[in-house]
Design a protein that fits this description.
The structure is a single chain. The protein has helices at 17-24, 29-33, 41-52, 58-61, 71-78, 82-85, 93-101, 107-113, 119-126, 131-140, 170-182, 199-215, 228-236, 252-257, 262-275, 298-301, 310-321, 344-360, 379-392, 415-425, 431-439, 458-463; strands spanning 3-7, 10-14, 145-146, 150-151, 158-161, 189-192, 222-224, 244-247, 290-294, 328-332, 365-368, 396-399, 404-405, 410-411. By secondary structure, the protein is of the alpha/beta class. The protein folds into 2 domains: 3-140, Orthogonal Bundle (Annexin V, domain 1), CATH 1.10.220; 145-460, Aldolase class I (TIM Barrel), CATH 3.20.20. The strands form 4 sheets. An 8-stranded parallel β-sheet has the order 7-6-5-12-11-10-9-8. A two-stranded antiparallel ribbon has the order 1-2. A two-stranded antiparallel ribbon has the order 3-4.
Length: 464
């Protein structure tokens, strides 16, 4: 059905729900590239006002991608809890924004209603929110997961230690790994992006990480971020796989471009479960062993967006993620490039939107605060987003040597950045990991680095 809104005696018409949501999106280069963006600031305001007046119940009747055409749409519709939705079904999108910001809407309330909120509802309300709104509501949402340690508790911040190397050289990886551990990084996961996605290399990296973890009794989990089919084969060959990784998108066609579908994700989850390598488990959710990465623009870059704006597509990816009780979900916000998020302002806004939508939908959201070298952004922009994420209760960030990934060739956050954020806001590592840091004389009780630690030197670490 068409939608309309009048601004200064001019009537703006929007053909359908996906057009309305696209026109209401804050400006970003990807939507302009796809010819979906509002043609003027006035049209954007008209669309946002029309969205504000839209009943949440409308999202049950008008899917942005038809049910019969897309398995992600089917998953979203089939997992929507109509009984829980009843608590908020009387609200418009604007009323939903007000309700989210109310004092009476507590973290417990948000946890109770999360399965009554569809990704499109989350995307819609995000389009009406200022930066402070996105931060304030996300900070209310506590999403706790566990594997060998406990992640996401209020007052804690974890990191992924990312020791990538352009040739997967063990010595280079070990040097970055040692550096990261000495700065208290790695409680979310020690995760390597392999330079080559072949089974023998992946198994070698998995064994190396697992040997180090066991040798020094580190209460964390490891991951080699290979394609899920590679990981499944590694499991079949007896590799020590903790987390099963995959990049995902918000449409069936996007996931097909990644070489996956929901069935393959289920196969990967079941393969991971078969190993039973976790020591902690969240009651009622099943093992938290999936690690997903997402990012605005992935659907458009694969020409798989169905004329849906990139922020709504991203929120739909979270509908996929939450079906698998993941340990970690990471929006790699500025990685795809300026064609989709042109500058620091757009990257900051997108990162806050992603984190807000994911947390609202019940996901353990982290963020790779990053940009490519050809984007109109710099490390000052990343410091702003980093600090805002500390305010918003982000579950984890990246720890990359010098904030410069020498394998993936992009700029991220450093080991020191995690120290800054933890000290600024009094945030602590995962409890089990913090105890290990103190046992190894890396941190004192005030989260300050000790002058000497009990960690080995590089050659000893390699010998481990």
């Amino acid at each position: 059905m068409p939608y309309r809104h009048t601004v200064r005696q001019r009537v703006y018409y929007f053909a359908d729900l996906k057009t309305l949501l696209a026109k209401a999106s804050p400006a970003r280069s990807g939507d302009v590239l796809a010819n979906l963006a509002a043609s003027s600031a006035e049209e954007r305001v008209a669309a946002q006002m029309a969205v504000a007046n839209l009943p949440l119940a409308e999202f049950r009747n008008a899917l942005v991608i038809p049910y019969e055409e897309d398995e992600v749409s089917r998953l979203i519709a089939d997992t929507h809890d109509q009984a829980v939705f009843g608590e908020i079904s009387h609200l418009t999108v604007g009323g939903f924004r007000d309700w989210l910001l109310e004092y009476q809407t507590t973290p417990q309330t948000l946890e109770r209603v999360r399965w009554g909120i569809t990704p499109e509802m989350a995307a819609a309300v995000a389009k009406l929110m200022r930066v402070q709104d996105l931060v304030a509501v996300a900070a209310k949402c506590e999403v706790v997961t566990s594997f060998r340690n406990t992640l996401g508790q209020r007052g804690h911040l974890a990191t992924r230690l990312q020791p990538n190397h352009p040739t997967d050289d063990f010595r280079g990886i070990a040097a970055s790994l040692l550096d990261g551990l000495r700065y208290g990084n790695g409680d979310a996961v020690i995760g390597i992006n392999p330079a080559t996605d072949n089974v023998p290399k992946v198994i070698g990296l998995l064994k190396m990480l697992d040997h180090v973890r066991q040798k020094y009794d580190i209460p964390t989990q490891t991951c080699v971020l290979s394609h899920i089919t590679t990981t499944i084969e590694a499991i079949n060959q007896g590799a020590p796989v903790d987390l099963v990784f995959q990049s995902i998108g918000g449409t069936e066609a996007t996931n097909a471009s990644f070489g996956i579908n929901l069935s393959i994700l289920r196969e990967g989850y079941q393969a991971g479960c078969s190993l039973q390598r976790w020591t902690l488990e969240q009651a009622g959710t099943g093992p938290n062993l999936m690690y997903f990465e997402t990012g605005q623009g992935s659907a458009l870059s694969a020409n798989a967006h169905h004329q849906v704006d990139q922020q709504t597509c991203e929120a739909r990816a979270y509908g996929v993620a939450r079906a698998f009780s993941p340990l970690l979900v990471n929006t790699v916000v500025g990685f795809i490039g300026p064609e989709y998020l042109y500058n620091g302002k757009q990257i900051i806004r997108a990162g806050l939107e992603d984190h807000f939508c994911g947390k609202l939908l019940g996901l353990p959201m982290g963020i790779d605060i990053c940009y490519t070298n050809h984007a109109e952004a710099d490390q000052d922009d990343m410091d702003l987003l980093l600090t805002l994420m500390g305010c918003a209760g982000c579950n984890f960030i990246m720890g990359v040597p010098g904030a410069d990934d020498i394998m993936l060739h992009y700029q991220s956050t450093s080991f020191h950045d995690a120290m800054y954020l933890r000290q600024l806001f009094g945030l602590r590592p995962a409890p089990e990991f913090e105890a290990w840091l103190q046992k190894m004389d890396i941190f004192d009780n005030s989260l300050r680095l000790r002058s000497a630690s009990r960690l080995p030197q590089l050659l000893d670490l390699l010998d481990a």
